[in-house]
Write a structure and sequence with these properties.
The complex is a heterodimer of chains A (185) and B (208). With 185 residues, chain A is mainly α. Chain A has ten helices and no strands. In chain B, 42% of the residues lie in helices and 8% in strands. Chain B has eight helices and four strands, in the order ααααααβαββαβ. In chain B, strand 3, helix 8 (188-194) and strand 4 form a beta-alpha-beta unit. Classes of the chains: A mainly alpha (185), B alpha+beta (208). At the A-B interface, helix 2, helix 3, helix 7, helix 9 and helix 10 of A face helix 1, helix 3 and helix 4 of B.
Amino acid sequence: MRTFTRMEPDDALVRRAQRGERVAFERLVELHEQRLYTLAARVLGNREDAADAVQEALVRAWLALPKFRGDARFSTWLYRIVVNAAHDIRAKRRERTTEEPPEPVDPRDRFAEHELSGELQRALGALDDAYRVAVVLYDVLGCSYAEIAEMTGVPEGTVKSRIFRGRAELAERLGTAQKRTESNE
Amino acid sequence: MMAEKHPDELELLSFVEEELDGEARREIGEHLVTCRSCADQVRRLEVGRDALRAAPLLELPGDRREEIMASLPERRDPWRLFRPAQRAIVIAAPVAAAAALVGVFVLGGTQLGGGSGDDEDSAEAGQAGETMLEEATDAAPEASPEANAAALVRMVQGPAAEVVRRLEEEGIPAEVDPQGNVAAEGRIGEVRAALAGRPDGNVAVYVR
């Protein structure tokens, strides 16, 4: 069974932030920033880009907040904005990479120091983007199938399929599934 | 081996997630005992899940939150009594007659957020004399009671909490009000001097 603790933001804070209170919004940022940053970092694989995506997303959220009607949880509303901002940041980075002429020094070096390391991130980075987003939202952030479907604009069945394939491929890439099978033989 | 229907991927995911009722769960469990292929699929799902769920949450770097808060643009909310253009007019009028009217311009009971170069003029007027306080007309419904009689010093760059810290370093008691602006207890000249090096921005600093 899933045992995630879902920290609901204080609705009163949302209402105050909707009325323009920056202090209330700052408190909401404080409550959510770790999860927003984790989402962006796991999707993008780069700390600097992830922080930029979170900043961009929070500016968008601040501006759109008066229109937030509470149909979704505030957290999932933010996740959706972060995923969109992360995709925009990645698109910009790709443009930059193709537009800029090659430099004597590998231009990726300036990003390299910010790359997330670790076996899990390498495996995640190799996944199809839709699978990566689905497994991060479901397994890392504890969103439901319905919430992910609403956020990503696909049916719940598609969300489940993406989680299935994302996890299975991740296990393959981590190599542990195969090792376990071999050790059981 | 007897031909047997394999569970589809959604059923296997539901099995791993313990979302199936007793009968369906038992059937798949029995299938897995004899079907190596499906058992491997289940194992992969578990391995992927465990790896993801063991991953720690990551910390937003250092002072990024402050940078984010400082980067928030002004939001034009319909309930704001004074929009920047209106405020400029309201402020410019007494400043034009400033030779005679040496008083602190008051924005009573209003939301003070938002920036305008003209606000600096009101601070000039405020520095000239700190006693004359007027009640503004229509108090905004969301206004904090503390702001009912307040003299705007100037609009500075946030975050508000940092402005408060700066003022307190100079021995000026201050706090962030419910609107995210800064209320200080002190003379306008002192407050202004304490914030001399701070760029203009969206946080209103007022004395009360």
